[in-house]
Amino acid sequence: MSGAVVAAGEQVGASLTAARAAEKNGQVAGGAGSGSAKAVPSGAAVWQFFDHETDYPDLCEQDLCERLGRALSFATVSHMDDAQTDWGAFDALQTWMRVAYPHVFSAGEAEVIGYSLLVTIPGSDASLRPMMLMGHQDVVSVVPGTEGDWGHDAFSGDVDDTYVWGRGAIDMKDQVTGILEAVEYALAHAWRLRRTIVLAFGQDEETNQFGAHALGQELERCGVELEFLVDEGDYRIVSSAEYGAPGFHLMHADLAEKGYADVILRASSAGGHSSNPFGGTSLGVLSQAIARICAIEWPVRLTPLSAALLRELAPAMTSGPLSELGIACAADVDERANEVARACLADPQLFPLVTTTCAPTMIEGGSASCNVMPQDMWANVNFRMLEGTTRADVLERCREAVADLGVTVELGPGSSEATHVGEPGGAGLAYVRAAAGRYFREPGEDGGRTPVRVVPSTVIGATDAANYERICPACIRFSAFVVDDDECARGVHGTDERITRRAYLQGIRFLLRLIDLACVQVDL
User: Fold this and answer.
1) Domain ranges of the chain
2) Are 374 and 365 in contact (CB under 8 A)?
3) Nearest 5 degrees, angle CA 435-CA 16-CA 188?
4) What's the CA gap between 303 and 286, in Å, rounded?
5) Is the link from the previous residue into 385 a cis peptide, with omega within 30 of 0?
């Protein structure tokens, strides 16, 4: 039945409005037809990659966007200290979800663990391992003092002709509500689901990830083994030139993530007047400790995923450190892996993929007066560990580096080990690539547009997906709710977060196609 819906959608190109018309050369490339040009609104250059926007023609854009706006209006801000979190906002969001998506909650078995939500919609074939679609309900707070900088209140959920506004519009209530919309549509249209769908929405991805950890433990306790999952990923479509291979574009399917550790350093001194700093100050000692830790050299190597990414791009590399090294084909990457890894250190895009990184991020306890020496101080150094380097390794080497300074060194909360993935492949990645290939294509004339490449990669940040690694061989971090680079840089955790209505609809189409391929058709 879902295939018939797609086919019907392809026949209604004439119903597209002028705002959906195909445009080129800095203007929008629309989905199924062409028409008069129209200027691209700010943050909407990504539209040029959209295709097949007439699929699922009975999707009501206004209703979908208004429901997203309503979800954004719930101030589900998580805090490192759970006591500061307004859990009532999470209760209210979930109460609203049950009303807004009745088919999901009538067909599925819902379980709330803490304030995290797990919904299982059974398929007809028990021999098929489930697919999980996931996200997090929580958002970050608005930076104090910047409230007046927002053109639309952070929790207004305002919807205008082009955008849906609010904290979480990109990161990542758009994907959470998009998942609910897609599953609701499939159930309302009586799609025959052969594969079970599990929905998992954590409560504190932005802080502690306790919610996703609890959901993962519950699924493991119940003996659930997933075929694959899809969590949030890179929100952008990027130029392949970032990797020295100009001429096309990429979407990342992050199949693994680096480890995460906060190392907390503490130093104390007697304080007093700055005119007699005999013995130094806690700030001086802490500064030495930070400098020594930043100077630690960590192993440099290609992980299997990074090697796979570079093998795919190597034939097109005409600039950058690998081109200068003479890497011209996939075999070169494997034969000269150590040289390739070292060369990557010189490139800002590739550097985090080949080594453990260290970034001092916080220092507290300094004096309030310029002539008074500080006493008790602490600092935070954030590590993102390459596969093969553990939290214990980080802690041990940091302690060794500052052993003679009298500084205490401990791990902060919320740390996690790097995930391991071998050669990329499997049904999950194939389904994601097939669905993305329909809706995201290189700009050009209708009928001759090639799909944007979906490449395997490693996320250098942290996501909830790692909490399911024990029960899932393919944890795919991929977002079809795409935004321009500047929107991502400005809006994610920043001011005036927003997503275009058109991008939100395209992300839902991707999810519908993914459900169709993986849970209805099953065989690619």
Assistant:
1) 2-241+421-521, 259-411
2) yes
3) 55
4) 34
5) no
Virtual torsion, Cα 143, 149, 155, 159, nearest 10 deg: -150
Q: From 130, 212, 205, select the one nearest 173 (Cα to Cα).
A: 205
pLDDT in tens, the chain (524 residues): 444 334 333 333 333 323 333 332 333 333 333 333 456 787 789 999 999 999 999 999 999 999 999 999 999 999 989 999 999 999 999 999 999 999 999 999 999 999 999 999 999 999 999 999 999 999 999 999 999 999 999 999 999 999 999 999 999 999 999 999 999 999 999 999 999 999 999 999 999 899 999 999 999 999 999 999 999 999 999 999 988 899 999 999 999 999 999 999 999 999 999 999 988 999 999 999 999 999 999 999 999 999 999 999 999 999 988 889 999 899 999 999 999 999 999 888 899 999 999 999 999 999 999 999 999 999 999 999 999 999 999 999 999 999 999 999 999 987 889 987 766 888 999 999 999 999 999 997 666 789 999 999 998 888 999 999 999 999 999 999 999 988 998 889 999 999 999 999 999 999 999 999 999 999 87
Distance CA 90, CA 75 (A): 8
Q: How far is CA 143 from CA 168, 231, 493, 494, in A?
A: 14, 26, 9, 8
Which sign, positive or negative, has the C-alpha torsion 464, 468, 469, 474? negative
Please, which residues have CB within 8 angstroms of residue 83's CB and are 6 or more apart in sequence?
Answer: none
Both tokens of 189, joined, read: 């249209």
Question: Which architecture, in CATH terms, is 2-241+421-521?
Answer: 3-Layer(aba) Sandwich (3.40)
Residue 113, burial from CB neighbour count under 10 angstroms (0-12, 13-18, 19+):
middle
Round to whole Å and give the CA distance between 363 and 322. 37
Q: 61, 29, 69: which is closest to 45 by C-alpha?
A: 29
Residues β-bridged to residue 119: 110, 199
| Alpha-carbon distances, residue 53 vs 2, 76, 440, 441 (angstroms) | 15, 32, 10, 12
CA distances from 493 to 86, 166, 455 (A): 19, 11, 26
16 φ/ψ angles, rounded to the nearest 5 degrees: -65, 140
**Distance between alpha carbon 101 and the CA centroid of its chain, in Å?**
24
* Structure tokens belonging to residue 524: 């690619």
* Three-class SS of 271-336: CEECCCCCCCCHHHHHHHHHHHHHCCCCCECCCHHHHHHHHHHHHHCCCHHHHHCCCCCHHHHHHC
The CATH classification number of 259-411 equals 3.30.70.360
| Count of CB atoms situated within 10 Å of the CB of 63 | 11
For 387, the token pair is: 């596969």
| Cα separation, 305 vs 420, whole angstroms | 9
DSSP at 417:
P
User: Which pTM value belongs to this model?
Assistant: 0.87
